[in-house]
Amino acid sequence: MVIFLFLTWTLSSVFLTLNVFRPLAKRTNSSFTEILLSFALGWLIGDLLPHWILLNIGITLLFSFSDIFSQPLGWTGLIIHFAGWTILSLRLWIILNLPERLENKMEEQLGNIWHKTSTNFASPAKLINIDWYSWINPNTILNDPRIEIIRDRVFFEQNDIELKLDIYRPRSSKIMRPALLQIHGGAWISGSKRQASLLMTQMAAQGWVCFSLAYRLSPEVVFPEHLIDIKRALKWIKAHADEYGLDPNFIIATGGSAGAHLATLLALTPNQPEFQPEFKQTDTCIQGCVALYGVFDIIEAFEEATLFPAKAKVLKLLCGGTPETQSECYRKLAPKNWIKQEAPPFLLVQGENDALIPVTETDSFFQSLQTQKKSLSALLRLPLVEHAFDIFPTLTAQCIIPIIARYLIMLHKNHINHSGA
């Protein structure tokens, strides 16, 4: 019995390690549950490696009470486990050296304006620079004495609808601060406004006012209700600019996955009457968008050459039908249909090991954006990085978030220089 358990544990560890480097679930023929499981395990084991190694050590200690390690099979299994830990640790070493590559890529795309931009914090350069404490206990990032967090402020209320947002802001008083609007992911059917806390806390510590909002989800509502809710939040933020000391003329939207899709639509559809039916006169322009591992291809999920059944299932919930029955909804849902010359700058960030969204999807959308020759826009592809890399303050997030923060600061400085503020 002990041998069977040990073999099962060893083989499971091998498959889980392989899944980190190459997701085992295939988009074309795997169910939504299988793809979600492949992503979750790859993300947890890849990014939460210290926790995984501690769990393995605990299991090894349990097996040590038997005679399994007095047998060749036991020692072979132990060597396999150590090899897996070593390979996973090598991945983290590659991630630790990723910021230098991203720095070069940003300078290549943005030029001198990027070179002149700096932040108050940087990616860890060595193992000793890693914030191990927040990696182990993510809640510690919320205890930064420089910032204040205001939870559950109602931004829209009507009949039985009550929508809320959280506010991350610096404790020091100042007016005309830049603002960041965070839109959570979750396939349009789930998610929490407490996602991306690392980016929110870091930007608040650098003087930004950050808003993380909740919006109604499918299948309770169908598109474009999600986007309308987000524009309601934007209206509320601009109306309360004086109260929170922010500049209503400089707001950047950001989000991950479905949140990146909605942030993209927010950036591409300013003042579009159909997406702000009750407040058509409100200016809903924003000054930039940071889309992380976003959903950009819509109709392609239903086509034979690019079939993605799990994604198509979620899109049916989002639109209340298929492209054949809800063609207008799908047309409005596709970000590429809204690209125009007036679009603000974009930063697109995508992991190459993403089990949920193929990196080619982001590449294709960036190429569509570039047809308008948008200045200050950039694309970052992240080797060995999974979906949702920014949810917790892991090493991956600690290496990438400072690059995103620097991009946001660059956009704000450019705004100030051109507005004469």
Structure report:
The protein is α/β, with parallel strands linked by helices and 421 residues long. It folds into 2 domains: 2-95, no CATH class; 104-297 and 334-419, Rossmann fold (3-Layer(aba) Sandwich). 46% of the residues lie in helices and 14% in strands. It contains 15 helices and 8 strands. It has an 8-stranded mixed β-sheet, sandwiched between helices. β1 (147-158) and β2 form a beta hairpin. It is globular. The model has no long low-confidence stretch (mean pLDDT 92).
Describe the protein's topology.
Layout lengths: L1 H20 L10 H16 L1 H16 L7 H25 L1 H13 L1 H4 L16 H5 L10 E12 L2 E10 L6 E7 L13 H9 L3 E5 L11 H15 L1 H4 L1 E11 L1 H11 L19 E5 L16 H11 L7 H7 L12 E6 L7 H12 L7 E5 L12 H25 L2
Parallel strand pairs: 3-4, 3-5, 5-6, 6-7, 7-8
Antiparallel strand pairs: 1-2, 2-4
Helix pairs in contact: 1-2, 1-4, 2-3, 3-4, 8-15
Helix- and strand-based class?
alpha/beta
The CATH architecture designation of the largest domain is 3-Layer(aba) Sandwich
How many beta strands in the DSSP annotation?
Answer: 8
Task: Kindly provide the name of the CATH class of the largest domain.
Answer: Alpha Beta
CATH topology of the largest domain: Rossmann fold
**Count of domains:** 2
Q: What gyration radius follows from the Cα positions, in whole Å?
A: 23 Å
Q: Which word captures the global form?
A: globular
What portion of the residues fall into strands of 2 or more residues? Answer: 5-15%
Q: Give the fraction of residues assigned to helices.
A: 40-55%
Question: Which parts are unreliable, with pLDDT below 50 for 5 consecutive residues or more?
Answer: none
> How many angstroms does the end-to-end distance come to?
73 Å
In the CATH hierarchy, what is the superfamily of the largest domain? Answer: Alpha/Beta hydrolase fold, catalytic domain
Secondary-structure element order, N to C: HHHHHHHEEEHEHHEHEHHEHEH
Instruction: Give the mean pLDDT.
Output: 92
For the report, how would you describe the main beta sheet? 8 strands, mixed
- Major sheet: arrangement of strands: 1-2-4-3-5-6-7-8
Number of helices: 15
